[in-house]
């Protein structure tokens, strides 16, 4: 009996500590240190967060979702559709974005994969490793160290801007 009660209690605790308890699974950030409002999630200072954004309604492409990793975070995960993410101020982010996704890396270390028409901005001493999975994706690199890998190619250093 005690074992069953413990399992139920742990299950309830993990549900209560998840990000955006009432939010649908597609836009939820499942880490206990992640705060979500509708389709927007923010990782708490110094915390590690895993993101699985799928759109404002938990669905797929055409919807939006966003993640902010703003201070000394370790963030990872992926999203569908035209989502956006920010990785700033000493954070380390490894994310995969959907078609038309946008990503901002500012004074952070970022490894990001973006879909067709995706865009990445790297500024203020960031280190960015960008992989495009489709055409018309690009990276803007200002005061940072950046490389871009286009479909079927190898990583190329980017100074200023680069596009697939």
Determine Rg (CA atoms, Å).
Answer: 17 Å
- The percentage helix is under 10%
Number of helices: 1
Oligomer: single chain
Query: What percent strand?
Result: over 45%
Helix/strand structural class: mainly beta
Q: What is the global morphology? A: globular
Give start-end ranges of low-pLDDT stretches: 1-28, 55-62
Provide the succession of SSEs.
Answer: HEEEEEEEEEEEEE
Report the biggest beta sheet as strand number plus sense, adding barrel if it closes.
Answer: 13 strands, mixed
Rounded average pLDDT: 78
Tell me how many strands there are: 13
**What is the rounded distance between the termini?**
60 Å
Explain this structure to me?
This protein is mainly β. Helices cover 10% and strands 46% of the residues. It has one helix and 13 strands, in the order αβββββββββββββ. A hairpin with a 2-residue loop joins β1 and β2 (40-43). The longest helix is centred in the N-terminal third of the chain and has 16 residues, at 2-17.
Tell me briefly what this model is.
By secondary structure, this protein is mainly beta.
Secondary-structure blueprint:
Layout: H1 2-17, E1 34-37, E2 40-43, E3 48-53, E4 66-69, E5 74-79, E6 84-88, E7 92-96, E8 102-106, E9 109-114, E10 119-123, E11 127-132, E12 138-149, E13 156-163
Parallel strand pairs: 2-4, 3-5, 4-6, 5-7, 6-8, 7-9, 8-10, 9-11, 10-12, 11-12
Antiparallel strand pairs: 1-2, 12-13
């Amino acid at each position: 009996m005690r074992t069953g009660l413990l399992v139920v209690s742990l299950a309830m605790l993990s549900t209560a500590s998840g990000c955006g308890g009432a939010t649908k699974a597609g836009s939820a950030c499942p880490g206990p240190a992640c705060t979500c409002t509708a389709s927007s999630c923010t990782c708490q200072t110094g915390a590690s967060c895993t993101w699985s954004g799928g759109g404002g309604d938990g669905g797929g492409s055409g919807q939006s979702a966003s993640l902010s990793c703003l201070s000394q975070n370790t963030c990872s995960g992926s999203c569908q559709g035209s989502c956006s993410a920010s990785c700033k101020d000493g954070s380390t982010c490894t994310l995969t974005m959907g078609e038309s996704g946008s990503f901002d890396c500012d004074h952070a270390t970022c490894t990001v994969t973006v879909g067709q028409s995706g865009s990445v901005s790297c500024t203020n001493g960031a280190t960015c490793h960008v992989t495009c999975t489709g055409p018309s994706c690009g990276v803007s690199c200002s005061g940072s160290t950046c490389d871009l890998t286009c479909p079927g190619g190898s990583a190329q250093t980017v100074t200023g801007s680069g596009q697939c």
